[in-house]
Automatic annotation (TrEMBL):
It holds the Pfam family NAD_binding_4. The chain crosses the membrane at residues 380-402. This is Fatty acyl-CoA reductase. It catalyses: a long-chain fatty acyl-CoA + 2 NADPH + 2 H(+) = a long-chain primary fatty alcohol + 2 NADP(+) + CoA. Keywords: Lipid biosynthesis, Lipid metabolism, Membrane, NADP, Oxidoreductase, Transmembrane, Transmembrane helix. Belongs to the fatty acyl-CoA reductase family. GO terms for biological process: long-chain fatty-acyl-CoA metabolic process.
Amino acid sequence: MLQCGGRSGLSGKWHQHLPFDTAQWLLDHPRITILDGDMMKPSLGLGADHIEMLKRNVHIIIHAASSINLAQRLQKMWHSVIRATEYAVELGLQCDKLERFVYVSTAYTNTHLCSLSPKGDVDIKERIISLESTSPNNGNSTVDEEYLELYNDFPWGYGYAKHLSERLVTERFTRHGKYDRLLILRPSVIGPAESLPYPGYAVPTSTPMTMIAALFVNHTAFSFELSSRLDDPESDSNLDEVPVDIVVDRLLAHLAYQTQGCVHAVSGRKARISFREVEAAVYQLRWLPWRFRLTWVKENGWNTKKSDAISRLYKIFGTSFDFHEEKTELLMSKLSVEERRTLRLFNTRKVGAFELASRSKQMYDCSTIFARKIAYSYRAFYQLLWIIWWVYVKLIVAWAGFDLRTVTRQLFAGLKVH
């Protein structure tokens, strides 16, 4: 296991989010080797001895490390998503015993299909969709040129970076005649676990639905503007949130049964969440006495400036995607009775059963983080004002050519302290 900071860095993360005994069991497990490395450095920041050890012994590589910052532009995501993936692929292709390479991507790599789909509920199949049909240069453009042409077809630089990474790993493994060893897993919006390691397990800042729910529950605004291409987004839009343990089980099952290519790890049509369910769950926890008014702005592109900041960040609000799951449905028919009993491959949530009360602690943690960031911003602002005032006074004193201390003593010389 590669971790920046090695054992101490991983220990801090595991002890923060897992029960002490579970975290300690993982740290002490004889089959887990923790290496201190960096995905954004050549050879993953590892020494020659460690690289040679990996080349001789590794059978399976699961590349799940990635920035998930939705606010960053493509230029910022390049090193943490695309270049890091390239380094992992380079190492994988040098491993003598490599049987499988798993790249964890996102289900939103094909969001450029929104502009091409006549339906509001956009079909997303388990394959890489070429951008050539939407690019006027027919595939002859550079990445920068392609991004400028298709900027409005992707909700975030993150989604486009993942799309490029999928194309990268597919091209490299195909060129080396090893495409049959490649699995690309595409989770939708990661949510709290159904059962493992315990019900409700989540890292609050890595569960987008929890973060945005915390914003809506505590926001003092009286109204919000959200954008959508749908005619009736409150009724027709959906969000696909998948429990993190279902993502893990799908990865392991498809890995064991040697599935190739792209596989969605999603809740799918049967268990996705309607916008009305989210809205109702928010109002159940909202402590402010007023309801905010929602205004929908009709937009066909992703990057509108008309909607509120929250909507511009969480741009999949007001959308609907039908993520196909044929590969997992086919896999389910191959599993033994015992495997079906132990593996959780599908979300068991019932329609209309979405709630946020079980996430109250995580939402509180998110709200605390938001409050600290705001406090830091105000503190920095006031510190900047004090610095400007101090520099201004110094300049005035220097320009006037007199000693401020002398002037102060003269002004208060006649005053007596009682």
